[in-house]
Each structure stands twice: as structure tokens, then as C-alpha cells.
Write a structure and sequence with these properties.
Largest sheet: 4 strands, parallel
Radius of gyration: 22 Å
Strand order of the largest sheet: 3-2-1-4
Strand content: 25-35%
Shape: globular
CATH class of the domain at 20-120: Alpha Beta
Structural class: alpha+beta
Number of helices: 12
Helix content: 25-40%
């Protein structure tokens, strides 16, 4: 649907028809507020579907429709009863909401990724199998469920060493551990199984939450690609380098920089490989976030998720048109969801970088100094400390959070990376070792 009377909704322009976009999100947070702010400015009615208690009367005052991501049929009934008129577009933020978003789009006749494609892209083993079946480069792997005895699991996967053990249903490198020997493989499986038995993971009610994938470790540099698929055609929004080596034993993602500093040939190979993976998985319309490794001879696509880059990291992504008009990622996705042609937008030439500030060790967070000093570094655009006072911090592979985020923009990706590293060096976090429970 065409929403605005001008190309960018100029002053005094009012929509003839209000478009409605249904945003699926597991939690409230920065990215939801960013979508809401942009939607208000564009005149889009933003509706939220969130996995929360349906017995409380709008506790976050966002009028969200309570759904259950593990109960697709029940959630579709709830949405059908709650939505009138039906939405014009959908967007999913985070991995868990993508499957329900796809089923909703199908039910309401909205162009988006199909349910089968969303399910394949969300589940690591299904992704690997489809890519391998279609002849794409993919690591050898084996699936292990919690019913398999540990000794049997090690025997059946040791031939793949060195390997990476990954929970099928978790994201953000949580529970991902490298093992180089049989002993390390067994220890990694025990550790990940313990994580999957934790209360917060069991609360997801994901039927595959207890399943592991063990895949051969792929040597090489890691990259991430942010894109939008429009009618089956992949449009690249940003190609990120991950300059920190991700070789294990854990895989905490710390720095993203763009534009990529890979050679033109490497960048072309990355885009080609991800485009082939998008087509293989059947993703046809909507945002995608892809991860890959570039080795000495091939590009190995690790995942293609049917959603945009998550949370605060989206602040590192902007696009521009031929006239220099800038859009945030949230605005670009809302425009695409309402049917607007976004093909004119391209990544800017300037450098952008984000640091997801790592947690150095388990402990209780009490505060940080040096934020103003970090903000004074040339090129640094924002420092967001997301840890809360007295919060118990848990690093990866068990943890699922960061201390905060540092953003920078500069003339080059090198300069932006130097800026966030300098800013990080000026931050001093007070984290006290947690006392053991009696």
C-alpha cells in the first residue's frame, strides 16, 4: 500500500489511508520504541504482538496483543479475533517470533516469508540439511537430542573434530562451544545440556530446545549481512566485518564494522553465497540477517534468519538514496512492510561500528565510570550502558546479555573501529565477584 503522498512524507503531507503493520517481538526494548517512533512520524499504525501474560491488563501500556510463540494455532485465533481491519504488513524482531509472523502473514494474505521457510531458517539443523541438499557449501554436522547417552553422542560425533557444539533453538552465540578433543566434546555437551535444562530456556517451551547440533569447525573470518528480500530478490543493506577472531572456545560477538574491508572479490562471493542460501531456504519477502565464514577456498553460510539484526545493534545501520536522504533500519523496514519500493536505498560510504561490550566474568554489576570521557572520543556517537545496578552478570556461553553498546561513525570503517576501541578503554566497570550461595 502506498502510504504517503510524497516520496518521504514531507511537511503537511497526510496519508489518504492509514497503513497498519503488525510487529512481532519477544520483549519490549529499544528496537520496539524505535519502530514505534518511526511509525508515528510516518503515520503508520504500529501494532505489537508479544509473548507475554494475557491475564494482566496492558502492563507496558503498549496495547500489545498477547500471543504464545510456541502455540501457533492458538495465537492465530487470538490475532484473528483482535485485529480489525487486518494489517498490511508484518515484521518480526528476534528469532522466536519469525515462525508465528510467517503463519500470520499467510493467514492474512500478506506478502512475507513462508511458514516453511521461516521454520527452516530458525532451526540450525534444518538450515544445514537444506543447504547441503541443494549443493551449497555447509559444514558436516550431526544432531544430538537429550535422550542420547553422553558416551553414544561423543562416539557418533567425534569423527567431526574439531567441532562446534550448538543448541538448535538458542541464538546470539549462547551455548556455542568449540571442542578439539573427545574430552572437550563430552565436557561441552554436558555444559550445554545443563544450560538447556535451566529455567529460562525451559520457559521458552520450544519443542526442540533440548536438541544440539555438532558441526565441524570452519576456519576463516566471519561476516554478517543485513538485507531485505523483495519478491525473491536480495537487496544488501549492510555487509559487516567481525574484526575480532571468533575461533573459540566461546564465540562472543563483540565488534561489527561496515562497510566491509574484504576485497571486492570476497564481497561478491559473500553476497552470491548468501543469495543462494536465501533462495535455497525459500525466503522470499522481508528482512534477513545472515552469518558466514570465508575460508581459503569457499564461503560457508552459517545461518540466514528471517529477521533484522537485533536490538541496539540496529543503530549501526543506515541507508541513503541518491539525494542523500537517510533512513534508519527501522524506517526502511516499515516502508518495505507497507509496500513501498526501497530499491533506491544503498549503504552509505562512511564507516560505522558497534561494540557489544563483553562481560569479563561472572559477578554483580555496581556501576561504570568514564562514560563522558568515552563519548568525547572523536567519531563516537553514543554509549549505552544496559547493565542494571546490582544485576548478576553471566558471560557466554551461559549468558545472554552485554554490559552495553558503543557506536561510532567516521570517514572509514578503520577509523570507526579505532574510535569504539578507544571509547571502550576509557570505561571502567565495577563488577564484584558474586558470593556463593550457602
Amino acid at each position: 500500500m502506498v502510504l504517503l503522498c510524497g516520496a518521504h512524507g514531507g511537511p503537511g503531507c497526510s496519508p489518504l489511508t492509514v497503513s497498519r503493520v503488525l510487529l512481532f517481538a519477544a520483549t519490549t526494548g529499544y528496537q520496539i520504541r524505535a519502530f514505534d517512533d518511526v511509525a508515528s512520524r510516518l503515520g503508520i499504525e504500529l501494532l505489537i504482538a508479544s509473548d507475554r501474560c494475557d491475564r494482566l491488563d496492558d502492563p507496558w501500556r503498549d496495547r500489545a496483543i498477547p500471543v504464545r510463540f510456541h502455540d501457533v494455532d492458538g495465537s492465530l485465533r487470538t490475532l484473528a479475533e483482535s485485529l480489525s481491519p487486518w494489517p498490511d504488513g508484518v515484521i518480526a524482531v528476534g528469532d522466536r517470533p519469525t515462525v508465528l509472523a510467517a503463519h500470520t502473514a499467510k493467514q492474512f494474505g500478506i506478502e512475507w516469508h513462508s511458514p516453511s521457510a521461516a521454520e527452516r531458517s530458525r532451526q540450525k539443523a534444518k538450515t544445514r540439511q537444506r543447504l547441503r541438499d541443494d549443493g551449497l557449501a555447509a559444514p558436516a554436522f550431526a544432531v544430538v537430542d537429550d535422550a542420547m547417552p553422553l558416551s553414544t553422542a561423543v562416539d557418533r560425533t567425534a569423527h567431526l573434530l574439531p567441532v562446534v557444539v550448538k543448541p538448535v533453538a538458542l541464538s546470539g552465540s549462547r551455548g556455542v562451544i568449540r571442542a578439539d578433543t573427545r574430552e572437550e566434546l563430552g565436557a561441552a555437551m554436558v555444559r550445554v545440556r545443563h544450560l538447556l535444562d535451566s529455567h529460562d530456556v525451559r520457559a521458552l517451551r520450544d519443542p526442540e530446545a533440548s536438541t544440539l547440533i555438532v558441526e565441524e569447525f570452519v576456519e576463516g573470518r566471519e561476516f554478517a549481512l543485513e538485507g531485505v528480500v523483495d519478491g525473491g530478490r536480495l537487496q544488501v543493506i549492510a555487509l559487516f566485518d567481525k574484526p575480532e577472531p571468533l575461533d573459540g572456545p566461546f564465540f562472543e560477538e563483540t565488534i561489527y564494522t561496515t562497510p566491509s574491508r574484504a576485497t571486492r572479490a570476497e564481497q561478491k562471493a559473500i553476497v552470491t553465497a548468501i543469495d543462494r542460501a536465501v533462495r535455497s531456504l525459500g525466503l522470499t519477502h522481508g528482512p534477513i540477517h545472515a552469518e558466514c565464514r570465508v575460508g581459503s577456498s569457499d564461503v560457508i553460510v552459517l545461518e540466514v534468519a528471517a529477521r533484522p539484526i537485533g536490538g541496539l545493534c540496529a543503530k549501526a545501520v543506515e541507508v541513503v538514496d541518491a539525494n542523500g536522504h537517510r533512513l534508519t533500519l527501522e524506517e526502511l523496514l516499515l516502508r518495505h512492510a507497507t509496500g513501498e519500493d526501497i530499491s533506491e536505498y544503498r549503504p552509505p560510504e562512511e564507516g560505522s561500528a558497534v561494540m557489544m561490550v563483553p562481560i569479563p566474568g561472572e559477578g554483580v554489576y555496581h556501576g561504570v565510570t568514564g562514560v563522558d570521557d568515552a563519548l568525547s572520543v572523536p567519531g563516537v556517537t553514543d554509549v549505552r550502558i544496559t547493565a542494571k545496578a546490582d544485576q548478576l552478570l553471566t558471560p557466554l556461553p551461559e549468558g545472554a546479555t552485554y554490559l552495553g553498546f558503543i557506536f561510532a561513525r567516521a570517514t572509514t570503517a578503520d577509523a570507526a573501529e579505532r574510535a569504539i576501541r578507544e571509547a571502550h578503554a576509557r570505561l571502567h566497570f565495577q563488577i564484584d565477584r558474586a558470593l556463593p550461595m550457602a
